[in-house]
Structure formats: C-alpha cells, structure tokens
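Thread title: Can someone regenerate the structure for this chain?

I was given the following input by a collaborator and told the matching structure tokens would be attached. They weren't. Posting the sequence so someone can regenerate them.
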Amino acid sequence: MTDVDLAYRSASDLAALIRGRELSPVDLVENALARIGDVNPRLNCFCFVHAESARAKARQAEDAVMSGAELGPLHGLPIAFKDLTPVAGTRTTLGSYVFENWRPERSAAIVDKLTAAGAIIVGKTTTPEFAHAGFTESPLWGVTRNPWNLAHTPGGSSGGSGAAVAAGCVPLAEGTDMGGSVRIPASDCGVVGLKPSLGRIPLDILPSLFDNISHFGPLTRSVADAALFLASAQGPDDRDIQSVSPPLDLTQPLTGDLRGLRLAFSLDLGFYAVHPQVADNTLAAVAALREAGAEVEEVALDWTAEVDATWSRMWGVFMAAYFGQHLETWREKMDPAVVKLIEAGRKMSAVDYKRLEILRSAQWQALAPILRRCDALLAPTMAQPPALASDKASERAGLDDQGRLMSRYMTEPFNLIGQCPVISVPSGLTAAGLPTGLQICGRRFDEPTVLRVATALETRRPWADWRPPLA
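Best answer:
Regenerated them for you:
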C-alpha cells in the first residue's frame, strides 16, 4: 500500500527524517515507486521507471546512514529527471524516434551534482519532442495528463516532471526552461518552478555552450525545496563556460518578511489577454504580498507582442540549428509542429537573427528602470488556466478585439532576459478547480530576493496541503 501522506512530505522534511534515522531511504524509495505505479497509468508522466537501480541506491544510502557516513543535503531522496537530460547508460529519448534507443555515455552536470548530493533517480519524465512545446505530448510517448483533471495538459515542456511532483511521485524533479518549460507546468500543476539566472545551474546538454535562453530548474511542492535543489545543483562548473561564480549561500532558512521591499506589478506585461480568473487569483496574491509588508507599485511595462514574436523566431532557429539535421531522415516520425519550427528557422538569415538582439535590448531597457527602483516584478505565469490536452490551438490564437495577444505563455519574455531569475508559485484555483500561478522576476542574479518573496506568499496563502483529485 502506498503511504500517500509520505508521498506528499516535502523534500526538506524527508531529508531531515533520513538524517535523524527516523525514515529509511529504502522505505521512501519503495513508496515513491509504488506511487508511480498507482498514478502513471493515468498520467503518463514517466516514460522510464528505474526501479531496480533505485532500490540498489536506496540500500546503499541506508547503509551510509547507519554507518555514520557524511550525508549530502539530498541523501536518500527520490528524484526524477526529464527525458531531455542525459543520464549515463540510461535511455534518453528527448521524446523523439530520432533518439529512441540513445544511451548517452556521460551524464549532464546537473545529474552528477544532484546525485552527488545524495538524490536517487527513480525514473525519467515525459517531454514533447525536443522539448518544443507547452503541451506534453510526443510521437514516442503520447499524451501526458494533468493530475488536477485528466482532460487537461500539465503544461510543458517539463510537463512530466510537473505532473510527477503534483501527484506525489517524487518531492523533487528536474526540468529545463527555454521559454517557460519549468514555470508553465508549475503553474498548470499547482507546484513551484524556478528558472534560475542564466548560468546559475550549469547547462551542458546542448550542442552549443553559448546558448542564452536555456536553463535547468527545479519543480517542487515548496519554495524551501526549490532552494534546496538550487543549492545542490548550482555551479560554477567548467562544463558550462557561462556558469556563474561565486555560488549562492543558501544555507540560512528562508524568511517571508517583506518589510522594506518594493515590488512592481503588471497584470498583462503590456500586451497579453489575461483570463478573468487568472487575474482574480493574481490580484489576491499581490494583496497577500502587500499584507506581508511589501510596497507594491503597479507599472505600465512598455512591452508589445513583438517581444513574444522575437522569442518565437529565436525558437525556430534553435530547433533548426540543434535538430534540423534529422529532418530529412525522420520527418515522417516527427511531430508536425517540430517540422514547422525547423523549416521556419531555416528561412531566417543570420543578419535578421542578429537583429533580434536589438529587440531584446529594447525589452531590457524598458524593464531595467523598474527593477532599479523595485526589488522584483510580479505577473501571472500563464494568461489562461490549464488548457485541454486536445486544445493545442490555444497556445497562440492571435489578437483579441482589443489588440492583446491571446497566448497562454507569459513566461517567454523572461527567457530573453535570462540573467533575471523567475519563480512561479501557485496563486490559487479556478472555479473549475484548476491551478494558476504567479511569476516573481528578480533583479539580475538575485535568486535570494525571488525566494524571499515566494516564501512570503507561501506563508500567507499556503498550498502545502494541496492535493489534486487524483490523490
């Protein structure tokens, strides 16, 4: 029998129980595997479950506890990695027939760091092909579903990780975020998702080490657990030339005291059409932060839909540069949306691509003065509640009658200014019982303030007891 209460304990609590010899890593991992067995047939959030290797690692972890060995901060905790992130000797498919049988020879730096901290890999989570979309569905693994309502998407592209955390399969899961792929499932699944500053967690899984929109980040059920993940995964590391130094000191308990902080707030980032229930939950979250002591200033952010278009153009080039070489051989087995992205990316000239940096510069120049006088910017994570899994047309539906962009993804602009960390935390539930999220964007490389603001909201409007109906 699965112990559901144990399945929903925080990573921080579980780590303390293991260190205190009150909980066996063997029992914890067995419970995680049982929980995966309970829910994965309905959610399809895991494409691989590594039960035997996880059990072996759990026995080793228990032996280390009993022998008095030095324990890492994640010792004995089950963790899931996205099926985009290489784990040495383990099938890593990227959700694509192209890589259906790929077994990488080396692990990504983040895998090495988190397992060195004591985490135990229980499986790989689903991703759309090449992590291309905000819905998690791939030609190879099919549709992944939201534990709050199986008819809805968990978001993407780290939707398998988001669903796994929300459903109590693991307390920690890794995701990648190139346009919101950690924050989107965090919002859609009612969990916490952090896009750290560019280079904070070393990223070495792309053909280029100079990509500047891509991030690793945690999906967790609490802000403290996101900080725990970040503390274990951060660099610097020579495997990523862009990894930043020095590492953050995240050893002190997080505080939710916001006295003296000034926060900016934009409901629409200047150009998004925001669903009324998303707006209501966002305003309630902002009010809670005011109650916590922050001064909140509503700002008119001088961004337009051209920001979203800039990201989309870059995304096509990203796909064409990194995966376009497979198109001629694998076209018939690729997601048609991936084919379309690759073909669009191939049409862009080098000069036009370089000019996108001018648009990104203007975007930053509009935000920088706000972040000089304010410690962080607040906005919804997603403009709409979680979409039906079958409704991919809702991703981008053009402009409404007021000229606002009807796109779900208020995450993408922040990948164009990747040095700013952004966390998504739950802001509430809709009338239909579906989660919505609040984004908190900090100053460059200032994760501590972002975590502080998120902790304040978690304290005022706690979600620790949230369990989707699947539970």
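The mean pLDDT is 97.
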